[in-house]
Amino acid sequence: MSQFDYDLFVIGAGSGGVRASRMAAGFGARVAVAEDRYMGGTCVNVGCVPKKLFVYGSEYMQHLNEGAGFGVFVAGKTFSWETLRDNKTREIERLNGIYNNLLNNSGVELISGRATLIGPNEVEVAGQTFTAKNILIATGGWPFVPDIPGKEHMITSNEVFYLDEFPEKALVLGAGYIAVEFAGIFNGLGAETELVFRGEQMLRGFDEEVREFVSDEIAKKGVKVTAQDNVVSIEKLPNGQLKAALQSGEERVVDQILCATGRRPNVAGLGLESAGVELNDAGAIAVNDQFQTSVEHIYAIGDVVDRIQLTPVALAEGMFIANRLFGDKDYPELDYENIPTAVFCQPNIGTVGLTEEQARVHCRRLRIYTSSFKPMKHTLSGEDERSLMKLIVDDASDKVVGAHMVGPEAGEIVQGLAIAMKAGATKAHFDSTVGVHPTAAEEFVTLRTVTRH
């Protein structure tokens, strides 16, 4: 008989925590999960899933307008925010139930409440103490809101999915993928939208050519892009609107301000200091390659360790923990190279591998291949949207070390490229592959002329 209540106690029922719990229980471990907010974590409730549904919704008006070029005319086009919002909510509730059933059917015990560490093998939830041989922290991230006067009048990505009314004028503060995506969502659904950020360009960390291209395309669609400025204070007016004072001295009066200035590891109130769990300089839980914290039997995965903030990464880390603790002891360590990602701005971004700037540091000589063109659909739609495709090749090995796309369904296309690059594909492999015609994706296997070295 074990001296502990559980073999594994997981704090947080997000993507990583649920995956680790289910797999560990499948290996025969006694597992409990504590969650104080909602099943499925950020991704399911206030992240990837509802965001993608809103992106779909925001694109429909453009699709309807494009139909005229194909002889399809739609009269009386209207938008109901309440319908989109409530249909989204019903879908999220359905997914919450699925996650709940997955854990129950796996034999995982669900405990409702915020878990707090009170020792290396003890947690407390709602006044009750539980012991566990191993503890896994998977509490994700939380929106960061800068400390400015009137900050309480801003909303974050936690609230934006549940607004009572859709704004006529919206200001989005930030330059990361969340900010850029929601600027497109607001604009696509009909709001007069401005994106404000303090840097010179949006989407820091992405390929510079991609950043510039996307900025131009977003502006062409109607989003006002204001760089090298910032919101320094907010005042709520008697009519309910918000007046934002900018660092430049200008003012904006809008109906809604979305603060999307980044996310921080969600470590508040976990009692980390009681158990001796250390944080790194960025405020994330410090872990080694096996996701072990400074305390032997306490582990952490996902956004709370702030390596790569992507749902599939948290899932992979959860699988690693479950296998190493209860299943395959030789389960391989995670390889963080060539992890693909997408930004669901409009048009979409899909990317995998190195940016051109990173590649110039790692490779002695490069071959850069680029192509910018109007997608076939827009030859009749009348839209002035363009796509960009880019391959970065290490000249010495001929390996493709970076692939980037801006355009419709970029995320879908880059997934296949990621498989090829994970397998070590060379430019010769791309060149010898027959394309699917007529598609945008075939451009990746027909790029022949070097744009620059």
What Rg do the Cα atoms give? Answer: 24 Å
- Kindly give the count of domains: 3
**CATH architecture identity of the largest domain:** 3-Layer(bba) Sandwich
Characterize the overall form. Answer: globular
Number of helical elements = 12
Biggest β-sheet: count, sense, barrel? 7 strands, mixed
**How helical, in percent, are the residues?**
25-40%
**Cα separation of the termini:** 66 Å
Tell me the strand percentage band: 15-25%
Low-confidence stretches: none
Structural class: alpha/beta
Structural commentary:
The chain is an alpha/beta fold and 453 residues long. The protein has three domains: 6-143 and 264-326, FAD/NAD(P)-binding domain; 151-261, 3-Layer(bba) Sandwich (FAD/NAD(P)-binding domain), CATH 3.50.50; 341-445, Enolase-like, domain 1. It is built from twelve helices and 21 strands. The protein has helices at residues 15-26, 41-46, 48-66, 81-105, 177-188, 208-220, 272-275, 311-326, 356-362, 378-381, 410-422, 427-432; strands at residues 6-11, 31-35, 109-112, 115-119, 122-125, 128-137, 141-143, 169-173, 192-196, 224-226, 231-236, 242-246, 251-254, 256-259, 263-265, 298-300, 341-343, 349-353, 366-373, 387-394, 400-406. Strands 1, 2, 3, 4, 5, 6 and 16 form a seven-stranded mixed beta sheet that branches. Strands 17-18-21-20-19 form a five-stranded antiparallel beta sheet, sandwiched between helices. α1 packs parallel to α8 and α3 runs antiparallel to α4 (81-105). The longest helix has 25 residues, at 81-105. The radius of gyration is 24 Å and the shape is globular. The termini are far apart. The mean pLDDT is 96.
